[in-house]
Amino acid sequence: MPAPNLRRTLITGLRWVTVSRVIAQVVTWVNTFYVIRLLSPADFGLAALAAVFANFLSLLNELGFSVTLVQRQTRDEESLRHVFGALLTIGAIFTSGLIIAAPLIGDLAREPRIVPLVRFVSIQFVVMAFSVIPQARLSMDMRFRELAATGIASALVGAASTLLMALSGAGAWSLVVGSAALAVMRMILLNVFCPSLRMPRLRWDRIRPFARFSGLVLLERTLWYWYMQIDSFVVGRVLGVTQLGVYAVGKQLTNIPLERAMEIVNSVALPAFSRLREDLADVRAGYLKILRLGAAYAFPVFWGLGAVCDPLIRAVIGAKWIAAIPVIQLLCVSMPLRMLNSFTAAPVTAVGRQDVNIKSLLLAICVIPPGVVIGVHYGVTGAALAWAIGFPLVYLINAALVSRALNITVLDMWNSVWPAGFAAAVMSALLALFGEALHSLHPLAHLALAIPFGLLVFLLTLSAVSAESAREMMRFARDLTSRNRVA
User: Fold this and answer.
1) Which of 235-239, 326-330, 433-437 has the highest mean pLDDT?
2) Domain ranges of the chain
3) Residue 83: Cβ within 10 Å count
């Protein structure tokens, strides 16, 4: 595909994915905030503990094929039959294994109430076997409209299921049933848009060509998952499910902007970089552009969230979650760097340098979990502090690894992100001062004044320190909102 056409396709894809995620998230955010009001910290703690091991196995369950098929642009029917056979086999093994192992997991977590929850969530493994191939085919064909529709509909079904269960008094079951409903609806719609049911086969020699790359994907995801989730397990085991519920809600609210942005970027970035993988200069230019635009989103959103989370928590989810405020504030310190760090996965994967991702994750595992183990003895704020202190070190070392893999200087990367970081720091400082003056107001009135003030300060400061960064951000916003313009 010629470069102008590829860029037009990417902008169109980003537009569809962004619109779908915004619609889905408006609904799910409202639903999430209401559900948080209905449920107790213990309910969230039980659901979080039940999900720790199940979500890990779900990453392994798809055998890395969701990435491998796209990276290799695999479309031949015979290969897909054997991939499908492997997915079904692993799904059945994981489902039966988790059902049997549920009591052991309950003993390990010191919480027997999670046993039936763990057994229920195991159904997602079989469901996923039917989702991987249509997802990969739609991504390879850059059919982002269908992927967007799938995201909206499945999010609506999941949100509605969670809300109905919560209103009926189902407690922690509300969260696991909603998650399962989302997965089932997603599987159905993917196969409607891209029919992929086929007679499964399974011969090792047919999937061996994928094994090395998929194995690296699985290793990378294993390392990523445990460094991201070990804090929840440690908090639950040491402090109990009620404190885990406080920590989980703070973490969930902080992760929402990260996860939604990464869903948008990664759904488009990996297919795009995979098409450009033979031209390192194009990959390099694309990565620096993502860094600039990502920084312009991440720094003001997360540092702004940290600055206004007190009135936000009081207004949206209620006073019983006040204990989550310091958790959110501490997690927001490193969240911009965590988001920028996530942008490295697509370009280095596309050029076959997954070793960079793996080295970065090994480093993170050496830094974050030990910090959490130490910090948790000072409560949930201590666990959150481990992220605020440890992750900047992880990011700096990972930046050096990426610079060598993509032949980019660290100075180029620094120049891409510092203007947004500086502007967001000024914004946060002024919001803190502004917040003191507004502290006596109702939380909603506080937010109504603070949010536009913070946005204005960020835009003015960014324009002052880097007019080009501000113009690029505005051009990109226009591209996403205009049907006829592709700058």
Assistant:
1) 326-330
2) 1-235, 240-487
3) 28
Q: What is the DSSP letter of 376?
A: G
How far is the C-alpha of 452 from the C-alpha of 478, rounded, in Å?
20
Q: At residue 175, what is the residue type?
A: L
pLDDT in tens, 9-67: 555 555 555 555 566 666 666 777 788 888 888 888 888 888 877 777 776 666 666 66
> What single DSSP character describes residue 169?
T
Q: What H or E segment, with its residue span, contains residue 187?
A: helix 173-193
CB 339, CB 298: distance < 8 Å? yes
The percent of residues in the chain predicted with pLDDT above 90, rounded, is 23
Q: Across 57-104, where does the E strand assignment appear?
A: none
- 57-112 confidence digits (pLDDT tens): 776 666 666 666 776 677 777 778 888 888 888 888 888 888 998 899 888 888 88
Strands (E), 117-200: none
Residue 162, both tokens: 């969670």
Q: What is the DSSP letter of 114?
A: G
pLDDT digit string, tens, across residues 119-150:
998 888 888 888 888 888 887 777 777 887 88
Q: Where are the alpha helices (DSSP H) in 200-240?
A: 204-239
- pLDDT attached to residue 17: 57
Apex CA 153: angle with CA 120 and CA 66, to 5°? 70
User: What is the rounded distance in angstroms from the CA atom of residue 22 to the CA atom of residue 29?
Assistant: 10
3-class secondary structure, 278: coil
Q: pTM surpassing 0.85?
A: no
CA distances to 69, 179, 228, 449, 469 from 222, rounded to whole Å, are 19, 21, 10, 43, 36
| d(C-alpha 362, C-alpha 219), whole Å | 10
Q: Which pLDDT value is given to residue 350?
A: 73
d(CA 231, CA 224) in angstroms, rounded, equals 13
- The confidence score (pLDDT) of residue 392 equals 92
Residues 230 and 366: beta-carbon distance below 8 Å = no
Distance CA 378, CA 234 (A): 13
* CA 264 from centroid of its chain's CA atoms: 10
